[in-house]
Design a protein that fits this description.
- The protein has 288 residues and is mostly helical.
- It is 60% helix and 0% strand.
- It has helices spanning 39-42, 53-56, 72-106, 113-120, 124-130, 144-154, 162-175, 180-194, 197-222, 230-254, 259-281.
- α4 (113-120) crosses α5 (124-130) and α6 packs across α7.
- It is globular and about 55 Å long.
Amino acid sequence: MPRTDPLPAAPEQPQTEPPAPVPAPLIRAFPADGVDADAPARSAAPPPSRTSPASTGRAPAGASEGGTSPSGEAGRAARAPGRREQRYQETRARIVDAAAELFAERGFDAVSVVEIAKRAGVVEKTVFNHFPMKEGLVFDADPPMRTALLEAVRKRPPGESVSAAAGSFVVAAVGLLGTPEAADGVARMARVIRGSRTLQVREREILGELTDALAALIAEETRAWPGQVEPWLAAHAVLGLYASLLELARDRVLAGVSGPELAGELRRQGRRGLALLQFGLAGYAKRR
């Protein structure tokens, strides 16, 4: 007897320009997941503005007419913050890289902060100055997905539901984990997380925080009264889809599946999940 698919196809949504998906938004330490999750922290110094001396070639105020930079105390004060920031980010990157290597070798729980500090060439206090909690070496305390997901919901066009906008973003984001360049990082991170009860608990906490943030945005937009269940139901459904696809990606990569085969499977499963959300939530919280 032929197998039938009980779920309708997800309805086509208007083509919009969503924020760039972040494939592994919770993860800090393994840039091979397809995106350098620590890149924002490593490049925290703002780029030169269009009118800054670096972009125009003009000497800054106080420089000599020959175009040299400020000298003396003023010059040192102007240059010092940049050098300090660079050293800070370089140290942070060394700590993250050292932690990633050790966690991959022996597991999160078996590695001490002292060992991480030693491999990174710093003292233990320096590690804690950058990462007050050991779990912060793996999970970003404020994952990039929070901003990107909420922005996708805020910028959805009239007539599009929250479940469509947020669900489509989630499917596109997790789908990128199927790329060949992401496979190694996804597999290593899956082993580290699944080998640590502490990390599993922390991941669930972060997913809960993302759910709360999305629910709060939906409640604000729909002017829901306190205790109204719909915003929380919609948010839990979307983040449940994300968590399910993320675990599927980890399962399949650990089984040796990657590249087009995994990307296709994630897209198919994502569309099925999105169709289920749309079938039950399509009429809720449409933009007017």
